[in-house]
Design a protein that fits this description.
The protein is an alpha+beta fold. It contains six helices and eight strands, in the order E-H-E-E-H-H-H-H-H-E-E-E-E-E. The relative contact order is 0.23. InterPro entries: HotDog_dom_sf, MaoC-like_dom, NodN-like.
C-alpha cells in the first residue's frame, strides 16, 4: 500500500473509518532492546539477560519492553502517511491502549492504522487513529490503542 498523502482537513476527513495503511515490517533485535533499556533505565532481566531468559522466561527468550513497542509508533506512522501544509503536529493522547502479547526478540512488527475519528476544532484538525502493532506470523497484536494527534494546517 502506498503512503497516503494529505494536504487538508477535508482530505483527511474523507478517510474516516478507513484503513489508512500499514508500515513496513521492522525487526526488534537485542541491540535495539538493550539501547532502549539503557535510555529508559529499565534493565529488567527479561529484556536484557539473554542467558537467564533462555532458562527462566516462559518465552525462552528475551522480549521487548512494551514501551519500546509503543515508541516505534512515530517511525512506523511516518511510513503510512504524509501530511503536508502543516505548521506543526502535536501528540495529544493515547486511549484504550492494551499490550496484547510480548514481542519476542528477533520478531518483526508493523503498524496498521485506521482513521477512527476526526474533528475540526477552530482550524485545528484533531484525529484519533485506531492502531495495531502486529507481530509477523501472530494472530494477536503486540499493542492496540487509539492515538490522538492535533494537526495545525497552514
Amino acid at each position: 500500500m502506498a503512503k497516503l498523502v494529505i494536504n487538508s482537513y477535508e482530505e483527511f476527513a474523507s478517510h474516516l473509518g478507513q484503513k489508512l495503511g500499514e508500515s513496513e515490517w521492522l525487526q526488534v533485535d537485542q541491540d535495539r532492546i538493550n539501547k532502549f533499556a539503557d535510555a529508559t533505565l529499565d534493565p529488567q532481566w527479561i529484556h536484557v539477560d539473554v542467558e537467564r531468559a533462555k532458562v527462566e522466561s516462559p518465552y525462552h527468550s528475551t522480549i521487548a519492553h512494551g514501551y519500546l513497542t509503543l515508541s516505534l509508533l512515530p517511525y512506523m506512522w511516518q511510513q503510512i502517511i504524509e501530511v503536508n501544509n502543516l505548521k506543526m503536529m502535536v501528540n495529544y493522547g493515547m486511549d484504550e491502549m492494551r499490550f496484547g502479547q510480548p514481542v519476542i526478540t528477533g520478531s518483526r512488527v508493523r503498524l496498521v492504522a485506521t482513521l477512527h475519528e476526526i474533528a475540526n476544532l477552530r482550524g485545528i484538525c484533531k484525529t484519533s487513529i485506531k492502531f495495531d502493532i502486529e507481530i509477523e506470523g501472530q494472530r494477536k497484536p503486540a499493542l492496540s490503542g487509539i492515538a490522538t494527534f492535533l494537526y495545525y494546517f497552514q
